[in-house]
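Q: Structure for this?
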Amino acid sequence: MTSAIATNRADIFRPLFAAATHDASAAMCRWTDGLITLTLDEVREIPLHSVTSELGFADDILTMVILGVESDPGTVLILTFDEDNARQLAATLTRRVRNTNPEWDELEISALTETGNILGCAYMNALTRLMGRTIIPSPPYFVRDYFASVIQQALAEQAAASDVALIGRTGFHREGEALNWHVLFVPSPEFRRMLENAIRVKPNDG
Amino acid sequence: MLNPTTAEATSVKGQAIHVGMGQIATGDRSTQFTSVLGSCVAVVLWHPRLSLGAIAHVVLPQSHGQNGQPGKFADTAIPTMLEQLASMGCPKPGLVAKIAGGANMFRVGGPLQIGEENVAAIREILKRAGIPITAEDVGGTYGRKITFTCSTGEMLIEVAGQKAKVI
């Protein structure tokens, strides 16, 4: 019951997140020669203590590319990949045979980091346009670690203000088939206020 | 594996309890606590003779008087853990602490180092409470999965790509 109420409250942000996802999808489609597209899966408020389990990640170790926002260190965009498809994407982008070594090499990391950069810039450029404020992403970096460890630092600012976390989740598709990749957008409380202001100014945008 | 359903403290016999952000749990010799940590810090208070323990998954150092989950802040988590242990018949004298976490997952410098601040706040509060820290594994730029066993007082620490260790 609580989750349903929280979902409804977060729905006001859906038009903005959907527009950002649309632009990110267009950029991703160009970057991958039409292979990959994105759709907005959900915008939710989730109790802090159950964020990882409700997002379906539990104690998983994931491959991630992380981007922050310059001047707003509490806002974070996290691109998560499952290992198999991330390896395949890196192989496709670098035009090489898929690496079977457990260690990620520099070229693979570079390919995924650049993917995060292109996607994150498109996402944040859309928010810049919709919010009327310049949002500059920080340089992306590659992490392979527990998802829970990464998301909890991303949520630190929200946690200072609330026991629930606002998260927008975007899914990926390859030729219509859903992939186990996601973009998670985690706004700081200040960023959330800016989103709310943008919605008030343009209630039907997106 | 049992997940506490709310942010309230949970006391469960004979179960592995997964402790999420801001939660507190208590247990006896049949209990294991598990948690995954980044910048957050797991504080475990344990009584070796009674094999009773409590854990908090601390997210931030100070509550600044805010209401909310007491386990979320170092300054409210530890007093709450002590109250809950006392209600189980576990006195403060004899308690020891183990802590883990407090990493900087985003590898950025500057003033906003929440992991370090969490560790510093917890050390200070435990020092004031007269509870010794007998082992710790904190800092770095990587996540940790911990499993604490109340019967032995051992904390297993797993890090991606590294060999697990016990503190």
